[in-house]
Amino acid sequence: MPAGHLRDVRGRGPHGPDRPPRRGADRPGEGRVQLHDPVREQVDRHAPRAQRLTPATAPRPRPRPRLRPRPERKHVNQLIAEYARRIGLDAPLEPTAECLRRLHEAHLYNVPFENFSMHGNAERGLGEEALHEAIVERGRGGICFETGRMMQWLFEACGFDYGIRLASGTDPHRTPATHQVFVVSFGEERWLFDIGYGARGPRGPILLADGARADHPALSARVRLESAAGTRLWTVSIKEHATNSAHWQDIYRFVDAPVDAIDLEMAHFYTTASPHSLLNRHKVASIPTPTGRVSVRDGNLTIVDDGKSSTLSAADDEELQELLERHFKLTIPVQDLGIGR
Description:
By secondary structure, this protein is an alpha+beta fold. The chain has helices at residues 38-46, 73-86, 97-110, 118-124, 128-137, 144-158, 261-273, 278-281, 317-328; strands at 113-114, 161-168, 179-186, 189-193, 206-207, 213-214, 220-228, 231-239, 249-255, 284-289, 292-297, 300-305, 308-313.
């Protein structure tokens, strides 16, 4: 892709191609910003009309490329219907706060976070056809960039007003921003929407207001706002009731600013290729339950349920395959089960 022509990953929302976005919306107009140049304007006033360089006579800049071509209506309806069936949700889906809540819950409990085929997926990329085949047709899960891209297409098809952010961990050592989340707007209200963190992520959308919470019997989540030098930084914390935790734990933070396609591509590349990436060193799967969570890490299955926790180590690949099928409804090829295979 030529320099200066980065794709725009911000959702278009309900404005349509011919209407400007509302004030405060994440996305800019389709054209480039025209900078004020007093020298050029001074020359133009005295130049023949055919030689003027002002925007009125200069060639119109090419529009910024969209994330992908706008799909035909038939394809949009098929995408919505098939994905809704995958997560056990009835269509039609409308861009409302209640629908957003239902989408979050349905996806979280039906599409596990997992990286057993991450390297093969990375080679195929984040294209619609490959992700649809894996997540919808074969019933697989994915990492945040994969499930997030599926949700992004759904947001676009349904007309949600959204933006994308990249979050980083909160440990003392600085970590790269490699977790994708959404900010979805309804009028003046904005909501954090995160379906890609796994079983210890928020159980529902969280209003982006300092101290706001999303409470659930198994896990509560809250957001905290910090501002410095004009930068808004949100920290997301959880309290896991299913483990009888009495303390809030920070899990990630993000700068409240939209990201470009190249930022997502680089974060995805780091996650799938860097030897320092945790997902490159461990094979994991996790999914929440109404009273806790189920997770697998390198062949060890952990079940947290209503204050109790138990762990089982798979004796071999066949037993691990059976555990993944039973608890996650995942069919994983043997060659994808172990580290380094």
